[in-house]
Design goal:
It is a single chain. The chain is of the alpha+beta class. It folds into three domains: 118 residues, PAS domain (Beta-Lactamase, 2-Layer Sandwich), CATH 3.30.450.20; 92 residues; 140 residues, Heat Shock Protein 90, CATH 3.30.565.10. Helices cover 57% and strands 17% of the residues. Strand 1 and strand 2 form a beta hairpin. Helix 6 packs antiparallel against helix 7.
């Protein structure tokens, strides 16, 4: 019989230690999942606090940004009570933040805006609030306008102001936000430019008036002075030709001189009419247009029919001159650039407006050239029209060619000026 070898006391102790360590490892392995779940739960429990801290940090960051801006930022709740007002309100308008904070917007607006601008803001907010109450916020997203504010010291400042609906992270309306920017310097610059433009327009008007005066003077000189002298010369040459009847060579020379003088008389008359047609002053715009169309057709070979009312309205001389000069320029452009075979002229009139339209069947033009500073003819037409309160429209015809129309008011602001200034 085989017998076991007795285990010494030291070996038995070592073996017991190894068994206890295995048991500890086993217990540790069994309890670890529970510990992991506890840690995960703790992390989830801490997440709202982390998000809250993050949101607070964002809010503080946005507040710091708003306080560094020169623009005024104003936040209202849905009851239109001021819940935030940036410190720039003190710099721009002279009011302390506390004077507006917590106030209903209408009390503050009527104190800080001129009456006209306050009415604009009231209407704007009324529409915006109505769109929120009627669940139609998308219809009225925001509005931007220029408003004149009154500083606390009584001076005024021009601003560009924008208001829009403020929404929560879920997209629900929670109030309104307004941003006010100082544009006083820009408005001053605009006023300077407007005054300069007005002065330039007056200067341009005066130049055109002086030009027309000079044309009328030259036309009168050609018609009266030179015309009378040529008539006297013709009479003398006729008399001389009769006296030289017995000397054929000299008589032929006298007759040739008479023909030359007659051509010179016709030329001077044509120049006088082209400078300032008497028919425009004596018979009116329609007759002048009809005469010019016939002359244009004869010189250019381009058919030029005229459609005009039988009862011509009484026009200020400045308006009639403007319409006639625009017609001349339009037909000149047809002749030079269009390659047209026909240019129709149509004159229409209402109680307060006269329109002159020139429509050709030519090659037309690139409408982008309308803003080209080198298109002096187009610029001249527009400038003339604007000086009497009118405008020029240029369109392509449906088939081919171009249509130029001058729309001119029958009554102009300075229509009662002296005739010498309107010739």
């Amino acid at each position: 019989m085989q017998c076991g070898v007795p285990m010494s006391e030291g070996k038995r102790s070592n073996e017991m230690g190894r068994m206890r360590r295995r048991a500890d490892v086993s217990n540790s392995t069994r309890t670890r999942p529970a510990d992991s779940r506890s840690e995960a739960n703790a992390s989830i429990a801490d997440r709202p606090r982390s998000e809250e801290n993050h949101s607070e940090n964002d809010t503080e960051k946005y507040r710091l940004v708003a306080e560094q801006l020169a623009d005024i930022i104003c936040v209202l709740d849905l009851d239109l009570r001021v819940t935030y007002l940036s410190p720039s309100v003190t710099h721009l308008l002279g009011y302390a933040v506390e004077e507006g904070l917590g106030q209903y917007w209408d009390r503050w607006i009527h104190a800080a805006l001129t009456p006209t601008c306050a009415d604009i803001v009231v209407r704007g907010f009324r529409d915006m609030v109505a769109s929120v109450h009627e669940k139609q916020e998308d219809v009225f997203r925001s509005w931007t306008t220029e408003l004149e504010f009154i500083r606390k010291d009584g001076s005024t400042v021009w601003t560009e102001s924008k208001a829009t609906i403020l929404r929560s992270s879920e997209g629900q309306p929670i109030g309104f936000i307004g941003i006010v920017r100082d544009i006083t310097e820009r408005k001053r610059t605009e006023e300077v430019l407007k005054r300069s433009e007005s002065q330039l327009r007056l200067l341009s008007q005066r130049i055109i008036e002086v030009q027309e005066e000079e044309r009328a003077r030259i036309a009168r000189e050609l018609h009266d002075q030179l015309g009378q002298e040529l008539v006297a010369l013709k009479i003398e040459l006729v008399s001389l030709a009769e006296r030289l009847a017995g000397v054929p060579p000299l008589r032929e020379r006298a007759t040739a001189m008479l023909d030359l003088v007659e051509r010179l008389d016709a030329t001077s008359h044509r120049i006088a009419v082209s400078i300032r047609p008497e028919i425009l002053d004596e018979l009116g715009l329609v007759k002048a247009i009809q005469w010019y169309a016939e002359d244009f057709e004869r010189r250019s070979g381009i058919s030029c029919p005229v459609e005009a009312p039988l009862d011509e309205p009484v026009l200020p001389r400045q308006t009639a001159t403007c319409a006639y000069r625009i017609l001349q320029e339009a037909l000149t452009n047809v002749w030079k650039h269009s390659g047209a075979s026909q240019a129709k002229i149509r004159v229409t009139a209402t109680d307060n407006k006269v329109s002159v339209c020139v429509s050709d069947d030519g090659v037309g033009m690139d409408l982008k050239r309308l803003s080209d500073a080198s298109s002096l003819g187009l610029l001249g037409m527009r400038e003339r029209a604007s000086l009497v309160g009118g405008k020029i429209s240029i369109r392509r015809n449906r088939g081919r060619g171009l249509r130029v129309t001058a729309h001119l008011p029958i009554t102009v602001a300075h229509a009662d000026a002296p005739a010498s200034a309107l010739v």
